[in-house]
Amino acid sequence: MKIDFEVIKSRAAGRWAEVFQALTPLSGEVLHRGKSDHPCPGCAGVSVIWPDKDAEQTGSIACRKCTSSKPTGDGIATVAKWAGLSQGDAAKAIASYLGIGGMESAATVELDVIELVCKDKRMPIEAFKQFRPTIEKRGRNS
Fold first, then answer.
1. In what order do the strands lie in the sheet with 48-51?
2. How far is CA 61 from each of CA 47, 127, 130, 140, rounded to the nearest angstrom?
3. Per DSSP, what are the bridge partners of residue 51?
């Protein structure tokens, strides 16, 4: 199965925020320039993430520590960096998420509930883990 990176990038243009939220610990907010920087979940908030000038279309972001202040280049590289995948596996995961046929994901990217809460609250995971959170087993499906 051939991976067409250009097809993936063109289909994801303008949708990188939702792709990042689904496949990485990044919030979709990292693509928007604001008055404040976004703490990086990769280095536990030690540094910050900022978007490239056309990040919503390309998915390119940078972290002072994780990427040595150099933009990732594109959204596939961003997903690979923050999901801990190879470029090929990141491309497959994005293609699968976007529903691009013929490119099933070889990588299963799963976020646990603690990571999801941290992303939703824009809080570094390491800071939240200091409170020793646990996942409750209750309800009908427990």
1. 38-39, 48-51, 61-63
2. 13, 23, 28, 41
3. 61
- Burial (CB < 10 A; 0-12, 13-18, 19+), residue 23, is buried
Contact (CB, 8 A) for 83 and 109: yes
Distances (CA, A) of 99 to 8, 67, 75, 89, 142: 10, 29, 16, 15, 31
Instruction: List the beta bridge partners of residue 62.
Output: 50
Structure token digits, residue 132 = 């020793």
Residue 42 identity: G
Q: Residue type at 2?
A: K
**Six token digits for residue 98:** 């976007």
pTM summary value: 0.69
Residue 138: pLDDT band (50, 70, 90) is low
How confident is residue 16, by pLDDT bands cut at 50, 70 and 90? very high
Tokens (6 digits) for 105: 């994901």
What backbone torsions phi and psi does residue 20 show, to the nearest 5 degrees? -60, -45
* Local structure of 58: helix, strand or coil: helix
